[in-house]
Design brief:
The chain is an alpha/beta fold. The protein is built from 14 helices and 12 strands. The radius of gyration is 22 Å and the shape is globular.
């Protein structure tokens, strides 16, 4: 059975072109980049090229502003801890209620251990951040403002350039988790006040286990990992050369076709949403109607248990999710959708479809063909559906 893979915000398939770029660095050019011999020297140019490829996609000013890491979680953790350590007189963090668990988890840990006070900024029903509340939370105690560029569940894009300027006016650093935004929208970091930015390779058809932290020139970094001089002393540990090469190749590939990919993917997403809203009663798009990623559709089907719907989709050959893969196994409704103040009937029936440049017309047609019947069958098992369904539904 051909599978329609629509869970690309969780991870993407490694592009064949990118896998081929990585291949020589497993068994041919296998040297340690820190070694002082020919094998080590042979891989140094590949690291430099990958750094420049990431720099180009970010629109950063210098390639040495790119620090390679193991992925978005490490980059987020490094940014948050570093901001507190470099400004010991400041012990407050401002973030949002809809951040990725890798940011919220660190902030909650810092609160529990008494190392920081954290201000959590809410969103409205459309997913827009409360900028007035954010500005009111800033003070001379603020060490860091950390707001994601694009939400991983709804695709909602936040005005991080504006927020970065607000943070700078309070003397604070600004960090953005751009794991979902990287490679899916145009960026020009050298024109912003963004100090730190996290990204990952496996969201843009690169390999898992590699990412980067953008560090604006002049911003001090306290390394999370110590003991080696790799990455100019900013991240100790032997470089993951194949992964870094793959991240660079993925950035190069994304930059080459970004504009046309966005337009095509957005068209597919809009067709998916329109079809589902027309065919399934009491459906709603969560976080829609504003600026969001072209590839993300989060849609609720009232009184339809999302896990049951996902099982039905899986059996029909469609891969989707009910939210962040990092929250898999949790019985709690999505913290992102709770922050939107959705009613319980919508919280339990939320499905996230996330597309990529590999998504086809046939994938969308398959979802539209199978999902309405799956939702209908699941709803019939809900004792609340009989009272909630519109009279026109048989």
């Amino acid at each position: 059975m051909t599978v329609a893979y629509l869970d690309n915000n969780a991870t993407t398939r490694v592009d064949r072109e990118i896998a081929e770029a990585m291949s020589p660095f497993f068994s041919e050019s296998f040297g340690n980049a820190s070694s002082n011999h020919a094998h080590g020297a042979a891989v140094a140019p590949a690291l430099k090229e990958a750094r420049q490829q990431v720099q180009a996609l970010l629109g950063a000013e210098f390639d040495h502003e790119v620090v390679f890491t193991s992925g978005g979680t490490e980059s987020n953790t490094t940014a948050i801890f570093s901001a507190l350590e470099t400004a010991p007189e400041r012990n407050e963090i401002v973030t949002s209620l809809v951040e990725h668990p890798s940011v919220l988890g660190v902030c909650q840990h810092l609160e529990r251990t008494g190392r920081a006070r954290v201000h959590y900024i809410g969103v409205n029903a459309s997913g827009d951040l409360d900028l007035d509340a954010l500005q009111a939370s800033l003070s001379d105690k603020t060490a860091l403002v950390s707001i994601m560029w694009a939400n991983n569940e709804t695709g909602r894009i936040f005005p991080v350039e504006e927020i970065a300027s607000l943070a700078k006016s309070a003397g604070a650093l600004f960090h953005t988790d751009a794991v979902q935004a990287f490679g899916k929208m145009s960026m020009a970091l050298k024109e912003t006040a963004i100090d730190l930015m996290s990204l990952s390779g496996h969201k843009i058809h690169g390999p898992k286990g590699v990412g980067a932290l953008y560090l604006r020139k002049g911003v001090e970094l306290n390394p999370l990992f110590r003991g080696g001089r790799q990455e100019r002393g900013r991240r100790a540990g032997t470089e993951n050369v194949p992964g870094i090469v793959g991240l660079g190749a993925a950035a190069k590939r994304a930059r080459r076709t970004l504009a046309e990919d966005i337009a095509r993917i957005e068209n597919l997403r809009d067709r998916l949403e329109a079809g589902l809203l027309a065919s399934a009663p009491l459906a709603r798009v969560n976080g829609g109607g504003g600026d969001r990623l072209a590839n993300t559709c989060n849609i609720s089907f009232d009184h339809a248990d999302s896990e049951a719907v996902l099982h039905g989709l899986d059996r029909a050959g469609v891969a989707a999710s009910s939210g962040s893969a990092c929250a898999l196994g949790s019985m709690e409704p999505s913290h992102v959708l709770r922050a939107l103040n959705l009613p319980p009937s919508a919280l339990q029936g939320a499905i996230r479809f996330s597309l990529s440049r590999e998504t086809t017309d046939e994938d969308i047609a398959k979802v539209l063909a199978v999902l309405p019947d799956i939702v209908a069958r699941v709803r019939e098992k809900s004792p609340l559906w009989a009272d909630a369904r519109p009279s026109r539904v048989a």
